[in-house]
Specification:
The chain has about 120 residues and is mostly beta strands. It has one domain (about 5-15, about 25-95): Thrombin, subunit H. About 10% of the residues lie in helices and about 50% in strands. It is built from one helix and six strands, in the order ββαββββ. The longest helix is centred in the middle third of the chain and has 9 residues, at about 40-50. The N and C termini lie far apart (about 35 Å).
């Protein structure tokens, strides 16, 4: 395993500000990963249950904490399935359709991030 690529895991949280208005913030963590090939069996199995499998990455289990958004290869993805296999976790990703795929300040809601 080379661990020669990176992806950014994004965890979103909603907390009220001093006036009680909910504010969305995100915590970004860049981690090393290995690209995986989405095989025809995986793709068809996901399709049958209504999910997508546009990309897969393998990362260390200690780096993944349930984040649902991933910025990988200049595109935004949502985590469809996370499979923990001991020291490694494989994320199956669905491409997020957006006009801002090349902008890491955008996430699954299509709005600019709060720290960007």
């Amino acid at each position: 395993m080379r661990w020669n690529q990176t992806c950014t895991l994004v965890a979103k949280s909603v907390e009220p500000d001093e006036e009680g208005v909910p504010q969305v913030s995100d915590e970004r963590t860049e981690v090393f990963c290995n690209p995986r090939t989405v095989g025809s069996h995986t793709w068809s199995s996901m399709y049958e249950i209504g999910l997508s499998a546009d990309a897969q990455v393998q990362l260390r289990t200690c780096d993944y904490d349930g984040q649902l958004d991933v910025f990988y290869r200049d595109e935004w993805y949502s985590v469809e399935v996370a499979q923990e296999k001991g020291d490694f976790t494989v994320l199956t990703l669905r491409h997020q359709k957006s006009d801002s795929d090349d902008d890491p300040d955008y996430g699954s809601d299509g709005e600019e991030g709060s720290d960007g």
